[in-house]
Amino acid sequence: MDTTISCSRDEKLFKLKKRHHRQLETLLAKQQKELDIIKNNSQLNYQDEISSLIKNFTCQPINQNKLSNISDILTVIIIEPRRHDQLYKVVNRFLSQLHKSLKFIIFHSGKNQDFIFQLFAPEIREGKIKMVRLATDNLKANEYNHLLKSPFIYRHITTPKFLLFQTDTYLNNQSKYPLQYFLGFDYIGGESYGLKGLHGNGGMSLRNTLLSLKAIYHFGPKYPDIYPEDVFFYHHIKTLSGKVGDIRDMSVFCCNYSNTNPYLCHPLFLHKLVDGKKNTKYISKYCPVFRDISQNIKDLASEPEILHRVSDETQAKYVVKI
């Protein structure tokens, strides 16, 4: 191995951490004031239901040598209450390029229910996609954090792990690392920095269902909804002895375009498409597929032609309310 290259990358990592540390001090001071303001506010306590979900959660231990059916191990979910212009492209890409047996859950709203049925009616009827209706038509950041730190999502996940993605993610079919490679992790996401330094970004992440529930049960009541859910789960799953990805693991799992990870190497997923335009040259060096994406980034937002509308009666048969 070329030690010069290794040292160069370590130096870049050191400078990157130093710069982020200064930014974090400012961010921490600002957010701490917000936390102090609302720390005494009353919060809904879901401890009883979380405790019940933990007690009743049953699944077979994951045997890495016997991954006969990945759908018994992993569920793929997206939380999107908006009629988002990238929803079809992103979900369809994951449907077609991930393992064919995987099941999907779309947590949606009344506002985009008809839209989703028009896009994915065959997959919904076949049971490939399960639809769960949220009680809101949009989610602010603190509401999104609250949703993931409450029992609502986990009522519908029955597999040991789940893969969470958002509308600004891309699946890299040229990656050298298959999805199965990451199933041993209890939390892994793309490199990101927050209140406690390095953590895995939640927008494209793989998580352990049971450890997520335990993190909520043991630590959730101490944190207000303004606290980022991905920072919460990354550090508390680690506290519960779960296996979380380090910066090298993150570099092959997912590239967050806003960062310039010195260990970047053909990641399986790409995240924050629009933010990445400023780092195109650097990212393209270590992830060649990005050149094709960046040249056609506008196409990612295009919608398909709607062929037919699904009746309200038909929709009612397949939609579960949260």
Quick recap of the structure?
This protein is an alpha/beta fold and 322 residues long.
What does it look like?
This protein is an alpha/beta fold and 322 residues long. The chain has a domain at 19-30 and 46-58 and 73-169 and 179-246 and 309-321: Alpha-Beta Complex (Spore Coat Polysaccharide Biosynthesis Protein SpsA, Chain A). Helix content is 40%, strand content 17%. The chain has helices at 3-38, 47-56, 87-97, 113-126, 141-148, 209-219, 229-239, 247-253, 280-286, 289-295, 312-318, and strands spanning 74-79, 103-108, 129-133, 161-165, 169-171, 187-194, 197-208, 254-256, 269-271, 319-321. The strands form two sheets. The chain has a seven-stranded mixed β-sheet, sandwiched between helices. Strands 5-9-8 form a three-stranded mixed β-sheet. Helix 2 packs antiparallel against helix 6 (209-219) and helix 6 packs across helix 7 (229-239). It starts with a helix and ends with a strand. Mean pLDDT is 78; it is low at 31-44 and 296-309.
Which SSEs are present, and which pair or pack?
Blueprint: H1 3-38, H2 47-56, E1 74-79, H3 87-97, E2 103-108, H4 113-126, E3 129-133, H5 141-148, E4 161-165, E5 169-171, E6 187-194, E7 197-208, H6 209-219, H7 229-239, H8 247-253, E8 254-256, E9 269-271, H9 280-286, H10 289-295, H11 312-318, E10 319-321
Parallel strand pairs: 1-2, 1-4, 2-3, 3-10, 8-9
Antiparallel strand pairs: 4-7, 5-9, 6-7
Helix content: 40-55%
**Major beta sheet, strand line-up:** 6-7-4-1-2-3-10
Estimated radius of gyration: 20 Å
The helix/strand series, from N terminus to C terminus, equals HHEHEHEHEEEEHHHEEHHHE
| Low-confidence regions | 31-44, 296-309
Alpha-carbon distance between the termini?
53 Å
Tell me which CATH architecture of the domain at 19-30 and 46-58 and 73-169 and 179-246 and 309-321 applies here: Alpha-Beta Complex
CATH C-level class of the domain at 19-30 and 46-58 and 73-169 and 179-246 and 309-321 is Alpha Beta
CATH topology of the domain at 19-30 and 46-58 and 73-169 and 179-246 and 309-321: Spore Coat Polysaccharide Biosynthesis Protein SpsA, Chain A
Indicate the mean pLDDT. 78
Q: What's the β-strand tally?
A: 10
The oligomerization state is: single chain
Structural class, from secondary structure content?
alpha/beta
Please, how many helices? 11
Which of globular, elongated, flat, extended, rod-shaped describes the shape? globular
Proportion of residues in extended strands: 15-25%
The largest β sheet comes out as: 7 strands, mixed
